[in-house]
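thread: overnight batch results

M.L. [08:02]
morning all. the overnight job finished for the chain we discussed friday. pasting input first so we're all looking at the same thing
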Amino acid sequence: MAPPPRMLQGPYSSLDRDRLLIRLPFKSFAVGTVLLPVTGFIACIFISLLYHYEDATYTHCKVSNYLPSISSAISRVPERYIWRGCIGLHSAPRYLVAFAYFSFYRSRFANRLLELLLSGLALLCSLAENTGLVMLTYVSSTETYSVHKYGFITFIGSSLVHMLITCRLWYVIKRHYVSPEEVTSYRWKLRLFLFNISCCVIAAYFFRRHNKYCEAGIYSLFAAFEYLVVFSNMAFHMTAFWDFGSKEVTVATPPEDKRY
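M.L. [08:03]
and the structure it wrote out:
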């Protein structure tokens, strides 16, 4: 009797179903994620100064200004599309990292209720920060100013709260789980948080002073400290380089269920 015909093989054999598709060191993942907004931001500032200088540095009271604000630098073409593309690619990994941190904190603080609650709040702040960044990116100040403004406020507010909570959690980690990488990570987080909040205060001062007195060059100082706020925020997130240095990001096909 002839053997039964064999089934045609699909794109994956039974052995292929458990195959690892992608393996990426978390350090490379973190660097690539942060380089997207860094590259896009620098490109937008450079193009604005080179090709749209008069428009990008224009102020409502028409005083001398030498640097565009971030909102101005990302609101024109092609800057708008460069920034949106970089942030669009950047946002998905940021959401993934937020949940990775939450899982990390839950394992570290399994028996510490306060830190578990702070971990959940840190997750919410991280999600709000990323969502605010996406909102202010895809709705420019020249399109719908109110939406752009609220996106900016959400981004800045949740960013500062997230950094504060993160420093508190890593202070506890440093005290109870000492390793060179964790100590280094905590110290840089604290420095960058203090630097970031200082730049926020100084930028707010120059913004208020510009709107009140319209002095030449003051808006440029506001823009410069606004840049530092953004760069220090990016650097703070780059500390994941130490937090997950030995980990890998993997994508694999799910194991085939052998039960019938």
